[in-house]
Amino acid sequence: MSADTNNRSAPSGAALPEAYWQSAFTESWGVLSRHTIGRIGMILLGLFALMALASFIPPLIDPIYNPMSGVDPIISYTSGPSWRHWLGTDFIGRDIFSQLLAGARIAFMVGISAAFMSIFLGTAIGMLAGYSGRWGDTLLMRLADMIMVMPTLLVLLVMAALFGQLNIWTIVLLIALFRWPGVARVIRSQTLTLKHRPFIESARIAGASHLRILVRHILPNVLPLALLYMSFRVTSAIIIEAALAFLGFGDPGTVSWGMMLQWVWKTGHMFQAPYWLLPPGICISLLTLAFYMLGRAMEEVLDPRMRREDPEE
Amino acid sequence: MEKSLTTGKPLLTVRNLKKHFAVRRGFFQRADTGVRAVDGVDLDILPHQTMGLVGESGCGKSTVARLILRLLYPDAGRICFDGQEITDLNERAFKPLRKKIQMIFQDPYSSLNPRMTVAQSIAEGVRISGITAKTDQRRRIERLLDMVGMPSASADRYPHEFSGGQRQRVGIARALSVSPRLILCDEPISALDVSIQAQIINLLKDLQDELGLSYLFISHDLNVVSYICDHVCVMYRGRIMESAPATALFDNPRHPYTLKLLSATAPLKEEFRTVSDVVASEAPGGELSETAYAEGTTMVEVEAGHWVRTQR
Asked: Which chain B residues have any C-beta within 8 angstroms of a chain A C-beta?
């Protein structure tokens, strides 16, 4: 069965003809763009994506706009919005606007990579568990249960306390490692229903191996569901990272929105500098909301009867 | 319609096939006696012939097909294909037989992967068995589609673009793709419209004449069975009640269950209308209880090729 795990990871989408995904894409795009919530989500996501892309520009204009190391020679304290610093500066005179842009990039990076990894793990494990049945199923699902009952943030805090400051990629990896069980359960149940569909039997009659059935027949049918869960996972990954950073256990080498909030709080500007406090807070809320709304819309695209998972869990 | 019964060597022989499903009950999940889905079935399918397997739903017809195709493993009994014992083969050793025994499914909607084009579905068996060079696959698929009366342009379309009858044609093309000798048809027409049913049945008959196929035709529709089958087995509660050439079975049914089954369907002949009354009056002590039918332990040959399970 371990061979299955390794090979399963090969993107089977390539094996399918372009035309299917193309038509599926245009079709779902049609539904998605008619969906009000989905439209709002997509517009918000587009704005944040623009922010993330634009985060490379300020340091190029002037090194004082570097979000991490840029220090204004004139201002070395926090100041309100001005023409020189659109959203003001932080406690050592760094530009808040460029920090906000960099934070968008980090949020996307953390959210999408953590979600992708957890979806990948969850899909692989869920499919294996559902398809193998019996002992494999029991073993993998009990493991999933064990991980699912662990409070992610708390475990991450303990880890950070034990090992000192965690690198941003370590945080991403840990989030992924703690967030796959929910996906695995959904994918497993979907696999269970697929497993008994006649087209799986007909593949077996054609002589298909288990690996082939998993990759060619089951994976393409669970993939849309996995992608849906990805958007919810992005939300939870961003929130976890922000919480971790705000509590002071983030990666000190990156500027994330949670980090910005931590600096506001740590330097005692919580209620003195709203121009500093509000932007990252609003951004975290809006970005997670955007992903959530997109997920909601996608859910309706895929199947209106589909069960939804609370992204806050 | 009736082909003469050649007494050649059977293509597929099934002897005393058994499959029991354990039913787990109670807190400790004790395995009870379970459901005897297939309880000692004997079948002989001759080359180029159609064997009908009829019975009410849940009597184990489909389980027999799944046991032959190794989607399930039998608890007891022997299955021989073309003189070769295949009962205990492992998956690898069974693989060459996947080319020789194929299946047509009941539900044309769920038996095709919705994410695969028609060509991909049909090509799967061809690819796995490697019987055709890659460059010839396309031509082969188009020829198969032509054989089942589908335009070759449908190769690159998805199952949801077709009607039930068309999908069933694709399912047949899929079964034919590896040039099998035996096709198990598991209620291939019961999910289709009546008008389409006739087309599919005729297609199956034409293909049989053209390619020399043997069919195991599983159905609960006696009218269809009488039309397509050379030999018919009546199954009840996992056992064969009566086995006879189609004409003999329909003209001269011997077993009470067969009579009951015939009387339950829309009558082909006037006389069957009253058959259940006959059974009720003939049986000592009123109508036979259902279990009484299945109790019989021996099969008796009443005429040449006409076997009936007796009451004792």
From this structure: 66, 69, 71, 95, 98-99, 101-103, 105-107, 110-117, 120, 124-125, 128-129, 156, 158, 171, 174, 178
